């Protein structure tokens, strides 16, 4: 019976995660194309996407690699972009923390925006789920996304080797970031964080090795956090 219920929650997760393939396929394809445009071969591209498995961090690292940025700066920048995953992990640890170590290790690799969003909603709606049901649901959410991300990246890398340099597809990278950031501007603290990050990044364009990106990111996060605290205090007084 326990296996049956866990299996049903796996398919519930699969169903909830399926709509995100419409994001994973074009983003994975674009990364594969841009990676080959940046000079990576197919093996390097696939190793990159399999070991990192984080779209925003991959695009950020790729852009810095194109600018011949030192490796440590590339790694630090990708880590800064992916810091939200640490918050995601902390948020779902109360739900999945009792699972066996090997399951938690796999889950840590597959914590992405989509799996976090689906699990947060489901676990709040059904707080009495067993650890087996929760873990089954979690892996169900990433099952339709992860394989298609790898396949799309490979297809993009194959296509990218056939695209003439004159097409200059690197313009798609900043457009991609804009498309990711735009829908996130839902609250005043989000907008304040973005504006501060933009202003600081413009003021730090002369900082060597693109360290202005890290400075701007930290400034934006601090501004957003302070703005959120101020709005919460204001709301508590009214």
List keywords for this structure.
globular; 2 domains; 0% strand; 13 helices
Task: Describe the protein's architecture and organization.
The protein has 238 residues and is an all-alpha fold. The chain has two domains: 1-168, no CATH class; 185-238, no CATH class. 76% of the residues lie in helices and 0% in strands. The chain has 13 helices and no strands. It has helices at 2-17, 21-37, 42-52, 55-66, 71-81, 84-96, 101-109, 113-125, 131-142, 146-160, 172-181, 188-203, 211-237. α3 (42-52) runs antiparallel to α10 and α6 runs parallel beside α8. The chain is globular, with a radius of gyration of 20 Å. The model has no long low-confidence stretch (mean pLDDT 81).
